[in-house]
Amino acid sequence: MTREPRPFRHQAFIDGAFVAADNGATFAVRDPATGAVLAEVPDLGAAETRRAIEAAERALPGWRGKLAKERAQILRRLHDLLLADQERLAQIITAEQGKPIAEARGEIAYAAAYFDWFAEEGRRVYGDVIPQQAREKRILVFKQAIGVTAAITPWNFPSAMIARKAGAALAAGCTMVVKPAELTPLSAIALAEIAQRAGVPDGVLNVVTTNDPASVGAELTSNPTVRKISFTGSTEVGKILLRQAAENVQKCSMELGGNAPFIVFADADVDLAVKGALATKYRNSGQTCVCANRFLVHRDVAETFAAKLAEAASRLKVGRGVEPGVVIGPLIEEAAVEKVERLVADARARGAKVLTGGGRHELGGNFYAPTVLVDARQDMQIFQEEIFGPVAAVTPFEDEAEAIRLANSTHYGLAAYFYSRDIARVFRVAESLEFGMVGVNESLMSSEAAPFGGVKQSGMGREGSKYGIESYLEIKYVCLGNM
Ligand SMILES: NC(=O)c1ccc[n+]([C@@H]2O[C@H](COP(=O)([O-])OP(=O)(O)OC[C@H]3O[C@@H](n4cnc5c(N)ncnc54)[C@H](O)[C@@H]3O)[C@@H](O)[C@H]2O)c1
Ligand SMILES: O=C[C@H](O)CS(=O)(=O)O
Asked: Which chain positions lie within coiled-coil regions (predicted)?
């Protein structure tokens, strides 16, 4: 087992201090491209989590008592420090998550953007004065920080998914305990270190690293001091947390799984659609919640589209994320590769044909070849499950009604994409798709300024945009009488 040099901290962060687990336990964090151990990280449990919650509670009065513009200055400094340290932070992401370094740099910029965005949103948390219904009364509405919050985040964007939550929470005046994914805790630790340098007071932002998410999650969802749970991850785990959070009626934001349709109508610009497909399907090796998962292509253009996509996909360079020109890194772990293998094998057994890829890459390990399948059908597992790998499965359709029916035939509802140059169709289809986000002739729509989130079993609430801060605020109605 080789050991890479440690260019980064590897301890949990509670109340402004970098700490080990009470019992000294640690767990290994590995490079998914090589299997090398990057660091041993503290394996905290419920007792340490309670201390993190208590630290967040102690820090709350001082933090929410600051002026919004004082919090904004600190968040903007955090933004600036992230960008100043972008290369080192990107190297950490690529080391623990595997994505190409260019994508990792983009993730740091994306994370920083959320702090910058919410620094301003925090200064515009307006209440209301409502015209009274009785002369002697006055109706006031205050918006106030919800209090101590908890964030549980995934491995695929180990920095940006924290920033999307912490930016809004801290801007609103809340404090936060973050539990990052055990596969990628190093980025969370690095973010905490930079937050401290930016002037975020002790206890306002805490990072609990653990290899036992269930125990830490049980504490976060059962401790009455925690008023809100913000989760990003699979729908299955989201359901567990919702059930647990019900006990104390904790407010919940859920950013869950996806199964995005990518519809290409006969009137589409096929070359633009291929370009968009390439961007959304193979980003992060297909490991994003908004990756196109099902390619529904009108029968008249299906063959041309699939052939062009396969030709482009076959030229994507696969390798370690630090290598120049690599655009397809490893999947996060062996189990992820085995899942993709299962989905492709089932599709092929049911009649799908491989145009390119179709199996593990020659590099071996966690590398999977960029793949395009045709003749995919609704009864295949690859149509029904979130692939989370670099595999595009093309299903032909006859008409618009069939395309919309197929697109909506999933319990997910996060992102959807379609390509058409018919403006009447654009409105019909955008209005008919049951998804929280719809890209029209565009496949990269994520932005700190836009409301990110899903419907159905893809979650509840929105992150980013002006909507993102609302979920960290409580509304208080104040009635002045005897006026
Ligand atoms: N909607 C979005 O914005 C969004 C963004 C990124 C990822 N995702 C989804 O996340 C999934 C991939 O990420 P993942 O593999 O990290 O998801 P996951 O659900 O396995 O894990 C997410 C987080 O939950 C923690 N966790 C797991 N079991 C838990 C439990 N019992 N109690 C408390 N915490 C627990 C994990 O440690 C991790 O921190 C995909 O489904 C993807 O679509 C959604
Ligand atoms: O997969 C998780 C991210 O939310 C995707 S994006 O970077 O926000 O598009």
From this structure: none
Residues 6+ apart with CB under 8 A from 163: 110, 111, 112, 114, 115, 191
Tokens at residue 128, please?
Answer: 């209301």
Tell me how far CA of residue 472 lies from CA of 77, 159, 162, 166, 306, in angstroms: 21, 20, 14, 10, 44
In order of their start, the domains of the chain are: 12-256+458-478 (3.40.605.10), 261-440 (3.40.309.10)
Task: Report the DSSP pairing between strands 138-145 and 148-152.
Answer: unpaired
Summarised one tens digit per residue, pLDDT across range 215-257 is: 999 999 999 999 999 999 999 999 999 999 999 999 999 999 9
For 145, the enclosing helix (H) or strand (E) is strand 138-145
Q: Which of 51, 53, 13 is nearest to 149 (CA)?
A: 53
Nearest atom in ligand 1 to 463's CA: 3
ipTM: 0.96
Q: Give me the active site residues, please.
A: 255
| Ligand 2 pocket test, candidate residues 162, 259, 281, 289, most atoms within 8 A of CB | 289
| 7 pLDDT tier (thresholds 50, 70, 90) | low
DSSP for residue 458: G
The first and second tokens of residue 239, run together, are 């359901």
Alpha carbons 260 and 410: distance in angstroms, whole number: 9
Q: How many CB atoms lie within 10 A of CB 65?
A: 10
Closest to 157 measured CA to CA, from 191, 184, 190: 184
Strand 260-264 versus strand 415-419 pairing type: parallel
Ligand index nearest the alpha carbon of residue 333: 1
C-alpha–C-alpha distance, residues 365 and 363, integer Å? 7
Q: Which of 121, 128, 146, 15 lies closest to 71, judged by CA?
A: 121
Distance from residue 273's CA to the centre of ligand 1 (Å): 30
Mean pLDDT of the chain: 97
pLDDT band at 2 (very low <50, low <70, confident <90, very high): very low
Whether 386 is in the pocket of ligand 1, judged by its Cβ within 6 Å, is yes
- Classify 124 as helix, strand or coil: helix
**Other Cβ atoms within 10 Å of 247 Cβ, number:** 10
Report the C-alpha gap between 461 and 479 in whole angstroms.
29
Summarised one tens digit per residue, pLDDT across range 410-459 is 999 999 999 999 999 999 999 999 999 999 999 999 999 999 999 999 99
